[in-house]
Amino acid sequence: MAGEAGVTQARRTAGTVARAALWVMWAALMLLAPSVMGYLSYVESVPEEWGRLLGFWSFVPWSVAIPLALVAAALGHAYRDRLLPRRRAACAAAVVALVAYLGLAAAYYLGLGGDQYGLRQSVSLFERVARYAAWCLWGVVLAAWVMPAPGAAEPPASPLDGRPGADALTEREREVAELLVSGSTQAQAAEALGISASSVSTYRSRACEKLGLASLDELVPPSRGAAAQPPKLDVGRAGSLPLMALALFSGMIVHNVTNYSSLASPGHQAGVLAFPVLALTLPWLVLLGYARLQGMRLRHRETSGRLALVLIALAGLGLCAGGSQPIWVEFPSRSMVSASVPAAVGYDIALVLLAPHLLWPHERVSKELDVERCVLYLRGRGSGELQARVLVEIALGRSAPEICESLHVARGTVNAYRAQGYERLGVHSSRELADLLARDVGFVPSAGKNQPSADSEKSTE
Question: Which of 117, 293, 428, 449 keeps 20 to 30 A from 60, CA to CA?
Fold first, then answer.
């Protein structure tokens, strides 16, 4: 058995190496084939050998398509679980794009489309589109075809393992308890298991009774307040898009130094060099000043490895974007402003969108509220399960981004539930909501029951 496993592993390794080599040859073909075609159309007009060599390298397409392919590869790695079932379609699309790119490059460089200027320009436009598509799909193929398939992941350890009474749990009780302990709400657990929310509450109560717990929160105590450890930022999560835009625009701003400073006059060199420094640092200084005035702080956020790769690729794309020819805008006062000014504006907008995920209160007064009893009370007042949990989180003093991360809901859902709940309960702020729950929660039955009592229903009429 061990020998067969070793042979299988060796075959897999050889297949991965072969695919990687073919992938590298693929890149070399896309990189050098248009250069050879351009060189063949150029060599007759340059008889000198040195001029021919320079002419060859001038046709190498060192364009933004290559860093764009790296961005596509990073995104393909981030969404690899969705990409693997479609890897055949991705590889077929990449081959079609490669053939189209090489055919259009031959038509443009070798004059296969004729000598008409208009037709040649049209072929050039389509050749660029095919080039970007071919390079992007080449990057996607890295994650879909070249990288080895992931092995079967071991099931994560359950927080119920080793607990007294865990062996007495039924399969359904264990499923409900593990979902609730992992951070799912009662409504999300009901949807995942295909049962009603009241059934989830019943299974939860039975699990607590067998485990000897008053609440499942005793297994994994929730962290609340300004000191709560936020989850890692990952691709597709709230806050990742503004961060990716920040990386892209940062690279474009830094590109201003590497490409435009040599074109400015000696008197304007200092201004050109100071522009990226101010564009990158001044918005953060404004954000820190705003946080200080509001009694808030910048909370450290970690990024996942997948998102870090995407950020690096986007920063590289920003450094290379527009690198062929600098663009300047001349105003009536004869002052020159580079085209990186729109990148600075985009950088500021991205930072504004990212700020809610970074700014948190220095301190927060702890409110001792029984979450489950408050949820039952709010359900008795006409709120749904998810809306009741959103309102309890608001009463505990959590901000909208924290609620989005905790309950896995959108920002608009939090705002809508807040407005509806305030109107239904007759309150106007989170403090009034907390006071209402602290005053009335004593009339709610114990958390072991799954429906509000009749007295609570009468009190809402």
Answer: 117
